[in-house]
Amino acid sequence: MNTLIEKLCKEHNLSDNELAELIESDDAETAELLRQRADEVRQLHYGKKVFLRGLIEISSYCRNDCLYCGIRRSNKTAERYRLTREEILSCCENGYALGLRTFVMQGGEDAFFTDEFLCGVVSEIKEKYPDCAVTLSVGERSYESYKRLKEAGADRYLLRHEASDESLYSKLHPKELTIANRKRCLFDLKELGYQVGAGFMVGAPFQTTEHIIADLRFLQELQPQMIGIGPFVPHHMTPFADKKGGSLELTLRLLGILRLMFPKALLPATTALGTIAEDGREQGLRTGCNVVMPNLSPVMVRKKYDLYDNKLCSGKESTEYLDELEESINSAGYTVSRERGDAVGFSKI
Ligand code: SAM
């Protein structure tokens, strides 16, 4: 296995068979070597810096019915909320005072968020905080909509592709959603000059090693600046309530592999990783991750953005406890950067 890791380090690529071997390796020695190499590569490009993003969960309304997601439209018990323009701006004000220089607006696909509304909020944030980056994560939209949002000042867009394989995609999503449109969105966003984030859930129901390899191949084709992966965690009010969640070990293995395949990518240690293991996020940071996204949403709505069971939304996960988060980042051997934190080598078209 060592030779595979060294090859991946040098060539940033492996054959499908080799990738399968590494993905399925489950010995501690391989995990440790992968971790070490991933850490070396992240340090080569990003030093010990960890970038913080203030996550503002702007709406729990969603028109979609993704089978894994707690805020899917069929979940009649989900508590719905949406933030007003004033509430979003007040989150940014708090975050800016705390030293955050990226604001991520994420939400369900809520028809209330027209281009006009979002463009207004984005341009106001950019006017007030010109040294900050604005990231959007509000799902699938038209090319024209992405273009307007970009012109309003949005810098980045997160849209996990979820599953590159068509048949897996269709088992995780209702039939009106297609991987073809998801990919179209991602390529549109790239063309428009966004820093783009794609990614997938690890251990999603029905996911096999072959599916994961297809995801890695799609990421090679897309070459996103950010890659978000985290374990699938079941939600009790979804059709996948009884499915097994993704494991910490496989998630870490894939983070290590991603760091070696995409040396300059921004890789978040996700909330889902911190949810399945107490030190999951720190382990992620030690395995190539360089981004953490503490929750900046108003405290009153946090529990309502209920994507999966036991989702963390307080303590180190939230901006009220940034000192503790910083302490845990320091104790993992890294330092919080106060920069905007763009991807190394990213140049605007
Ligand atoms: N609507 C936007 C979109 O589709 O990109 C953003 C919101 S969506 C809820 C954000 C991400 O949450 C999804 O990309 C999905 O991967 C993740 N997610 C949803 N349900 C999850 C679950 N049960 N376990 C882990 N991650 C989940």
SSE run: HHHEEHEHEHEHHEHEHHHEHE
Number of helices: 13
Strand line-up across the major sheet: 2-3-4-5-6-7
> What summary fits the major beta sheet?
6 strands, parallel
Q: Spell out which ligands are present.
A: S-adenosylmethionine
For this structure, the quaternary state is single chain
Label the overall shape.
Answer: globular
Structural class: alpha/beta
SS elements, strand count: 9
Percent range for helical residues?
40-55%
Average pLDDT metric: 96
The poorly predicted ranges are none
What's the end-to-end separation, in Å?
A: 40 Å
Radius of gyration, in angstroms, nearest whole number: 19 Å
Strand content: 5-15%
Keywords:
3-stranded parallel sheet; alpha/beta; 6-stranded parallel sheet; single chain; binds S-adenosylmethionine; 349 residues; 9 strands; globular
Question: Can I get a quick summary?
Answer:
This protein is an alpha/beta fold and 349 residues long. It is 42% helix and 12% strand. It has helices at 2-11, 16-24, 28-46, 85-97, 115-128, 143-152, 166-172, 179-191, 209-222, 248-261, 271-276, 280-285, 322-331; strands spanning 49-52, 54-59, 102-107, 133-137, 156-158, 195-202, 226-231, 291-292, 335-337.
Explain the overall architecture.
- 42% of the residues lie in helices and 12% in strands.
- It has 349 residues and is an alpha/beta fold.
- The strands form 2 sheets. It has a 6-stranded parallel β-sheet with strand order 2-3-4-5-6-7.
- The mean pLDDT is 96.
- The protein binds S-adenosylmethionine.
